[in-house]
Amino acid sequence: MHPTSHRPRTPDLAPRFIQSSASEYIELFVGVGASRVRDIFKQAKEKAPCIVFIDEIDAIGRQRGAGMGGGNDEREQTLNQILTEMDGFEGNSGVIVVAATNRSDILDSALLRPGRFDRRVQVALPDVQGREEILKVHVKNKKLAENITLTDIAKRTAGFSGADLENLMNESAILTARRNKKAITMDEINDATDRVIAGLEGRSLTDNASKKLIAYHEAGHAIVGTLLPYHDPVNKVTLIPRGQAKGLTWFTPGEDQSLISAAMLKARIAGALGGRAAEQLVFGSGQVTTGAGGDLQQVERMARSMVTQFGMSEVGSIAIDDGGFMGPSYSEDLSKKIDEAIKHISDECYLNALTILMKNRECLDRVADELCELETMTGDRLKEIVAEYTEIPEKLAAV
């Protein structure tokens, strides 16, 4: 007999997997959490090679010593036990610990030092290819119309997370069932996208005066956004209320929103102020409404970030801490400069929006009239109308 036939059978070296949530370790009785940690790592050693996955580790991994009375509580004892198991005197060869959290900023520094969680993977929002792969998972039990491709849906859902995409397809399926259709069409997907972004659809406006005012407001957003080269392109304009909004103008952001230039931020501020500018231009300063309330809050946030976080103003290339709940920690003189810089950015962008609408008043009237009649306008139709009156600039990248 050949000698190699007496060799022992090679064991299965595929790694085992143990999953747990950090909240399972937190109990009223001191020592229970640490005991559970020891039990899990004991199982992992017996099954090595093994992967131990701890979800929401911030439940027990918060910075130590931050509580009252020294913070010697059950949570800290559990954390100490995890630290010991991960890098103590006993070697845990063959055991890999993986954890997930969305609050990495509050984790204890001992958890993050080399030898423990020394590799960090930032899970960002999926790109168009990632969204397409995620959609493949969520349409396995759903029937799509023949003319729909997942690539088209992925391109129309920039900025969506995996949970948003799951919600989108579930809402699309519900709408399909309500409309007694056999397959999901692009109409259901578009309506579901609107619902995921902006909320439930409300009743159409019946008051002609209010409808006309909102039409001019949304047309102002759309035209200013279309004619600014650094602004995101318009996807759709509608007068159908959703959530708290009486009308909405959707823009399609680019895939990469991690680097945004000052020109793009100012374009977005001007676009947000386009609605108020249209109201003032058409109805006069005395007839402007509260419809721009949300727009003005958005403008203030963007302008303040430009001044205090990104160094995009006369205040200087500095990042200023707002002090959190303790209030600002900078001088009154600097506070005055910040307020003046924010107002300057807002006034400059508002004047830009008003100038654009004054030069294109006929186009503004045309878009508002069609909105009053049809209530919804696509971005392609908007560009067709605007192109009849003026040249549309090519959209430029953020950087």
How would you summarize what this structure contains?
The chain has 399 residues and is mostly helical.
Low-confidence residue ranges: 1-11
Domain count, please report it. Answer: 3
- N-C termini distance: 73 Å
Rg value: 28 Å
Number of helices: 13
Instruction: Summarize the main sheet.
Output: 3 strands, parallel
CATH topology-level name of the largest domain = Methane Monooxygenase Hydroxylase, Chain G, domain 1
Cross-sheet strand order for the largest sheet: 1-2-3
- The overall strand count is 6
- Per the principal axes of the C-alpha atoms, what is the gross shape? globular
Residues in β-strands, percent: 5-15%
CATH homologous superfamily label of the largest domain: Peptidase M41
Q: Helix coverage percent of residues?
A: 40-55%
Given helix and strand content, the structural type is mainly alpha
Mean pLDDT: 82
The second-level CATH architecture of the largest domain is Up-down Bundle
Specify the CATH class of the largest domain: Mainly Alpha
- The SSE order reads EHEHEHHHHHHEEHHHHEH
How would you characterize this protein structure?
- The protein is mostly helical.
- The protein has three domains: 14-112, 3-Layer(aba) Sandwich (Rossmann fold), CATH 3.40.50.300; 128-198, Helicase, Ruva Protein, domain 3 (Orthogonal Bundle); 208-389, Up-down Bundle (Methane Monooxygenase Hydroxylase, Chain G, domain 1), CATH 1.20.58.
- It contains 13 helices and six strands.
- The termini are far apart.
